[in-house]
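Exercise: predict the structure of this protein bound to zinc ion.
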Amino acid sequence: MKFIDTHCHLTDERLGPVEDVLARAGEAGVVALICATASIPDSAAAAEIAGRYDQVWCTAGIHPHDAKDAGEDYLERLEELAGNPKNVAIGEIGLDYHYDFSPRDVQRRVFAEQLALACRLEKPVAVHTREAFEDTLAVINDVGAGGEKILFHSFTGGPDEAGRVLDIGAYVSYSGIATFKNADAIRAGAVLVPDDRIIIETDAPYLSPEPVRKMQINEPSNVVHVAECLAAVRRTTPETLAEQTTANAIRFFALR
Ligand SMILES: [Zn+2]
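Solution:
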């Protein structure tokens, strides 16, 4: 089986040496990894890692937590980073009203500006949304971003929210959260996602999936557990789920 971990934070030092993480991922069948990013320095570090390893790709973006520290020239910096040959998306960008680490109006402005940049550059977008679902859809609508270029990463919505995301043509990515015992609503939503729009990720070092949830540091090799859980829920085999999600990730991110 071949998997793609479409969202992992390889720049996070808690993961330990990147070559070891990549070796374990390779043994688990992870053939490609997309390093997600949260700030300008983080995006530059991700590009550096992606430059060193064939199977690693990177994004560039300002996380909603970091929106208040984006800096005046951040859009120019992002455009530069997006021009890197290993860059495949703008992200993770969006809104997080759970922590509110940045003021909400600043989060909305920085999200909208990055979405508009992604549209202009014709880049896919990895969206983070937490307790901000309505406003996230409103910003996407206001900017006029096409849903087929948008991936809702680590999706935690139930059937209603999944339906609304699918209605705008977006892709949906599931992480370890979907495997948690109390995540019945998320799994009920995952059943509704068409075979050609479902994607998987770890969000490592966060969110270790069941049955390894006790692992304090999650890592890309664990994407196999996310795949197994989703396959069971969707009444298909892990092999089929792996094929579908890998093909979808290659298409969505235009991996070569
Ligand atoms: Zn993330």
